[in-house]
Structures are given as C-alpha cells and as structure tokens.
Amino acid sequence: MKRTASQAEKGVVYLIGAGPGDPELLTVKAARLLATADVILHDDLVPEAVIAQCNPHALVTSVGKRCGRKRITQEGIHELMVDSAQRNLSVVRLKSGDPMVFGRAGEELQALRAAGIRFAVVPGITAAFGAAAALGVSLTDRRAASKLIFVTGHHAVTKEQELPVWTGALPEDATLAVYMPGRDYSSLRADLVRNGVAADMPCVAISRAATPEQQVAATTLQHLCEVDPGPAPVLLLIGRAMEHVQAREQAVLQMLEAEPVALPAAENRVQE
Ligand SMILES: C[S@@+](CC[C@H](N)C(=O)[O-])C[C@H]1O[C@@H](n2cnc3c(N)ncnc32)[C@H](O)[C@@H]1O
Fold first, then answer.
1. Is 83 a catalytic residue?
2. How many folded domains does the chain comprise?
3. Going residue by residue through the chain (272 aa), what tens digit of pLDDT does each one get?
4. Which CATH number is 202's domain given?
5. Same domain, yes or no: 141 and 209
6. Residues 145, 106: one domain?
7. Residue 81 a catalytic site member
C-alpha cells in the first residue's frame, strides 16, 4: 500500500488516532484521510470539533460504548468495518488519542486480517502526551523521572474480580499515567500505598486535556480520594515529575483567592 496516500483508498480501513480533542492536533495524514473517506466510524470520546473535519458527504456513525451504554458490540464494529470495505468504500475507524493505546486496536486489526481487508494505522497524540503539553510538564523530566508507565484502570480480562491497577514496587523515578481511572480512586490509592509509594507523591488529574473545557486538579497520594477530577475523560498522572504542576496550581489557587481573575481558555494559554 502507498505510504504517502493523501486520499482515502477504496476498500481500505484506516485506524486513525484523533488525538486528545483539539482538531489542530490531528496529524496532516489523519486530516487528509478524514476529509476524503466515505465512511467514518468514531468513538464517543472524539469531540465534535474533530468530527467537523470529516468529508461532508461521508456516512458518519458513532460506535462508542461508553459507561455501559451498549449501543453496538465490538463484533458489530468489526462487521461494519468489514462490510463497508467489501462494498469498496474507504473507511476510517477513528479513535481518541493514539489507536494503539488502550483502544481495542488488537481485536479490530485481527478481524480485518481474518476477513482479508487491507488496512493502515495512522498514529495520534495519546492523552498522556496531550496532557503533558497542556500542563507544560515533561513526563520524563530527567531530574525526577526516567521511566514512563502507561496503565489502565479498566480491565477487560475479568469482570468478576477487580484487578489492582498497580502491583509491585513503583520506582521512585517513574511517572505513572493512569488511563480510565474511574471516579473512585480509593483502590488505586490503596494499591500504591501497599506498594510503598510515599504519601506526598504528587498526583495530577487532568480532565478533557487539550480542549477548551480542560480542568486540572493537583494533589498528593495522601489526598487523592478527596480530589474532584472534573468531567470525563480524565487522565491521572502520578510521580515526582508532577511536583512542578502541583506547586503551580497551588500558587494559582492562592492568587485567585486573593483576587479573582478570568483565566484565558486552556488552549490559548501561553506558558512561561
Ligand atoms: C479508551 S481509552 C483511549 C485512550 C486513547 N487511545 C489515547 O491514546 O489517549 C480512554 C481514556 O483515555 C484518556 N483520555 C482520552 N482523551 C483524554 C483527554 N482529552 N483528557 C484526559 N484524558 C483523556 C482517559 O483516561 C480516558 O478514560
């Protein structure tokens, strides 16, 4: 398959990363394919601002399954992709962030391979990278972190038994990015405490990173359960590299308490 295709090819399925939500964070390739594909199958987390970039003549369908609202099964999504490609349409399967990170890409690619459908994967900016940019903090600031660990709070393997988000010792020089952390952080906090993570370990919850609705709540592991993370989607970042965010958010809060001012929208804030 041509690697530089700017037009979506007929009979091909493109697994595309939409990034964290800002349409300007789409790759050039993603934007071109979205503008020319016949069929777009997108997750719930992909915001309207990104959907607006799609070919106006495309058949655009949300195939999200958020919060137990089962509208379509995973097998149903496979069938839609395969059927559309077999009808010689160009198909975009649009996922938030990067399609290969906590996005069921493994199952979808397996279904496409099994049906003999040609496909291509277009990477996107994963939530942790969008969040780091929006926060102005390096996830691997070498003074504090030399390891970056992605984990999910949501496990597909077993529904009966709750699996710990984290087991074993967490290196002091790691940044932990927790995707799908849920709303109750008590078991995550307990897992980390049990494994010797310090009570003063900085934790940052970032809601709707890289969108105009972005919210940031910075705290420590000790107070993690008291935090209001804001509306979904939320990403938790835990580690010493987040100390800077914690200090800055506290300074902003103190300033606002002293003299309330209107802050510019998150995406327009220039960082110093
Ligand atoms: C099903 S996973 C998909 C991850 C996605 N493939 C990625 O690379 O970012 C959904 C989780 O990603 C995180 N997420 C996605 N977009 C986000 C955003 N704009 N702000 C904060 N977290 C986000 C949240 O933890 C959310 O529960």
1. no
2. 2
3. 545 557 999 999 999 999 999 999 999 999 999 999 999 999 999 999 999 999 999 999 999 866 455 679 999 999 999 999 999 999 999 999 999 999 999 999 999 999 999 999 999 999 999 999 999 999 999 999 999 999 998 765 555 566 788 888 889 999 999 999 998 999 999 999 999 999 999 999 999 999 999 999 999 999 999 999 999 999 999 999 999 887 777 777 677 777 665 655 655 556 65
4. 3.30.950.10
5. yes
6. no
7. no
Residue whose tokens read 């209107």: 262
Residue to mutate, 44, 50, 93, 96, ligand 1, most ligand atoms under 8 Å from C-beta: 96
Convert 13-37 to b/e letters by CB count within 10 Å (16 or more is b): bbbbbbbbbbbebbbebbbbbbebb
Pocket, ligand 1, Cβ cutoff 6 A: 20-21, 45, 95-98, 101-103, 126-127, 130-131, 179-180, 206, 208-211, 233-235
Q: Does 100 qualify as catalytic in the annotation? A: no
What is the CA(258)–ligand 1 centre distance, in A? 34
Q: Positive or negative, the Cα torsion across 22, 24, 27, 33?
A: positive
- Asked, for residue 102, whether it belongs to a domain, the answer is yes
Its pTM stands at 0.89
For atom 12 of ligand 1, which residue has the closest CA?
179
Residue type for 213, please?
Answer: E
